[in-house]
C-alpha cells in the first residue's frame, strides 16, 4: 500500500491542486478494487484443474466452463482449451468437434419370425413397406427364397440415414445367413456360411434295460442312438436281441460353434457286444466318395435287409401258420411278425426297392408292398400313415410310413411280411438265407486299413477299459456312464 501511495503522489504534477483528503481516499479505493478484480480474473480457480502443475507444453485450463457439462458425455470426450496464446481469446476456439463423428449406431434391427407371419407383416413391424418386400424378393438373385421363413428364425434390417431400406439379412441357422443388399435400384444376394470346429469324443455303456435308455444315460443324443442302431441293424435285431449286460462303445464327432457345442456329428467307429459276440464298425469313404460302415475286414455292415423295420419295440405275435385270430376267433395262418409300438412310430424300408402297391382295405388298413429285385417282397400293414406312393423308389432305412391300428387290428402295431419268390417266410429267420454283405474292392483295402488304424486303436482301448491311452492322445473326453 505504501508503494501505491508513493507512486500516486509522484504522479501529481508540481503546482497542481490536490483533491480533498476524502476524495483521495475514495480514488485510491477505486483503483485498488480494479487491480484486485484483474488479479482475481487471472488467478486459477480452486478446483482440481487449478492445482495442476503448469509444465511446458501442457494444456492450460481456465476456471469453470459452462460448456463442460454438455461436452463431457459418453459419446464425446470433454473439450480442452488450446495452449496459452492469442487463440485463448477467440470464441471459435471453444467450439467442440461434431458429436456425429464419435457416435456408433447399431447397424441391424432384428425381427423374430412368429407363427403365422409373412414377409409383409415382418417388414411392417420393422418400419418398411410392401414395396420394399416386392423389390427385395423380385430384384435380388434367389430373392424368392426369402419367403421361405419359419417361426424362430431372425430377419434383420439395415436402414440408411434417410430411412430407406439398405439391406435385409435372413438368418437361416447359426451356420447360414443370406444378405440382400441394395445396389442402385435393385438388390444383390450374398450367402454367409460359418464353419464349426470338430472334436472327437467317446462313450462306453452297458445295457440294463434297452439300447435307447443306455445311450441316453451315457449322454448320447437320440439321433446318435438311432444312428448306432442303423449301423448294426443288419447284424443285430434291436427288438429281440439285446440283453442285459450287452455293451457298446462309440467314437464320434462333436461340432462346436463359438466355443460351445452346436450338435453331434458323425459316428467314426463303434462296437457292440451282444451275447458275448462283438461286432465292430468303421466309417470309410471310398474312392468314389461313397461313405459306409465296414467291419475290420472291409465287409459292409449294410446287409440286403434290416433285421427289423421298426426301432425299440416288442414282438407281439410271431410267424405262426396256425394262430387263433384275435378278432375273427378262427384259426388262420399268421404269415408275418407283429411289432407292437405306439401310434406314429416310424416304419423303415427293410431294403432298397420300389413301392408296387400302396392303398387301404378293411382288413389290412393302410398298407405298402415293396419289391426288392426279382425275388423279394416286403409288406407293411395297419399303418397309421403312408409316406410313399406307388411306383416310388425307396432306400434301406428310409421312413415309408408310421405304426397305426387301421384295418382289422386290436391295437397299434406293424404287421410285417417277407416273401421269397412269392412264398411267405419267417421274417426273423429268412436273413440266414439271404445273400451276404458286400465287401470293399481289393484295391480299396490298403486305404481302408490306413484310414481306420487310429479308430481301431481307440475302440480297442475302450473295450479294454484303458482310458489313459485315450486321454494321452488328446482326441476328446471320456464319457462313461
From TrEMBL:
Transmembrane domains' residue ranges: 26-43
InterPro entries: Cell_wall_metabolism_enzyme, Csd3_N2, Dup_hybrid_motif, LysM, LysM_Opacity-associatedA, M23ase_b-sheet_dom
One GO MF term attached to the UniProt entry: metalloendopeptidase activity
UniProt domain LysM: residue ranges: 109-157
Gene3D superfamilies in UniProt: 3.10.450.350, Glucose Permease (Domain IIA)
Chief location of this protein within or outside the cell: other
Protein name: Peptidase M23
Source organism: Kineobactrum sediminis
